[in-house]
Amino acid sequence: MALLDIQNLVVEFQTASGPFRAVDGVSLHVDEREVLAIVGESGSGKSVSMLAVMGLLPWTATVTADKMSFNGRDLLKMGPAERRKIVGKDMSMIFQEPMASLNPCFTVGFQIEEVLRFHMGMDKAQRRERAIELLKQVGIPEPAERLSSFPHQMSGGQCQRVMIAIAIACNPKLLIADEPTTALDVTIQKQILDLLVSLQAKYGMGLIMITHNMGVVAETADRVIVQYKGRKMEEADVLSLFESPKSNYTRALLSALPENAVGDRLPTVSDMLFEPAPQGASA
Amino acid sequence: MTKVVEGKNIVRDYHVGGGLFRGARTVHAVKGVSFGVEKGKTLAIVGESGCGKSTLARIITLIDPATSGELFIDGNKVDIARDGLSKEMRRKVQIVFQNPYGSLNPRQKIGDVLGEPLLINTDKPAEERRDLAMKMLKKVGLGPEHYNRYPHMFSGGQRQRIAIARALMLNPSLLVLDEPVSALDLSVQAQVLNLLADLQDEFQLTYVFISHDLSVVRYIADDVMVMYFGEAVEYGPRDEVFSDPKHAYTKTLFAATPRADVTSIKARLAKKKAA
Fold first, then answer.
1. Residues of chain B neighbouring A242 (CB-CB closer than 8 A)
2. Model's pTM, two decimal places?
């Protein structure tokens, strides 16, 4: 059985000029021990659909779905209090801007221990021990001293490691990473991706990787969903997506990669979207 | 062939003033970098954050003076710390910044954004400024209907086009591009890179292109300089640097760049299966 199973998810926002449909009928599922990548450009609804799963959307959003179940439980029928028990524990999320998503007023140690206190009910000594263990796991040197640091005293890469430590604190079954490396340098990006993939393999988590970087997809994913303007364009395992992309949009995205350039100009997505598909492919 | 821009042993130190608990100290942001770019060519500067690449960009753009070293623009020695900056020099060198959301004044219409460099640096009448701005809008793939709009009405890619248009208003010979596409989506990135290539062909522009994305650098650059802690650890023609990196840091950088080709995906999946 799938860990997370979503059928026909629709998210609409109420705006001054009428409802705006950000996610339009997306279905997806993630199994245990699987890395699913969701790719798309800004405005494709990739983040919004995952925020809907986490229940983190503002009140202006209306979420409807035929089915939204996590670990055998129906998320649609669940009340907010019950949902808060799952979010952050069995299902957790890492955000794009590590500097902005940590609270600048509290120490790193406090923010890690907060999750442990709320979800695991550990006492003070246990929490401290677990927090040190977590920081060690995500590769922060001198973890015991680092517990009393504030986020501004750490680099962007280290803050992202702390975010990962918080996310995996309660051994979640599903980890959602929303553009975890977009704000980071390539060398740090490599370290963070390696860390995420090794943690995923070690604990057998399901991992959803939201990104717009095709390189990140190629380096991490088992299966890929391509989204465009709120709709799912294509779903395939990573190898066949890169080898023989089915939809026009995916083909356009791949050919816009600078390393795939033929000649001295890059094909752009708008050039390709309106061309007829080669035989055997569907739009 | 003459070099449009040439730097010899450029050094830039920043003096960080001491506070109540800390003494004053000096940060060596750029430690003796030399380079030269010929007309119509592109030099790419690569490095991680804090390696001094943006400081070097500010020196080349004549925003900050170098602490020591010599900078030549079109063969003439420039020292803005001693002589200040003439309008003629400002005309020759222009810059496009990284974040198209932060580099345009939200209260200025696009027409005024484009007219401002002419207003400050030339004595062209309003009519002529307007015509030139209209023409430039067309050049960068926007239309006359955009003249009276405000920056918030544009997407990120369109704003970067406007920033490029503004930089080109004075007909510069050298354009410094400080991570011009790193805030943009892949598809929009391709459009902006194509625009830059078209403009380079049309006006024989010289680019100094700052980036941390090696795939973009490989596509656009003629020469590549890799910076690490304020020093140029690798400098040479693109193919040489990419095929035979000498310095350990360059090798690390290449190894860290994600690869999106089928062979490396197959290799990764095979490795995963074996584990």
1. 260-262, 265
2. 0.82
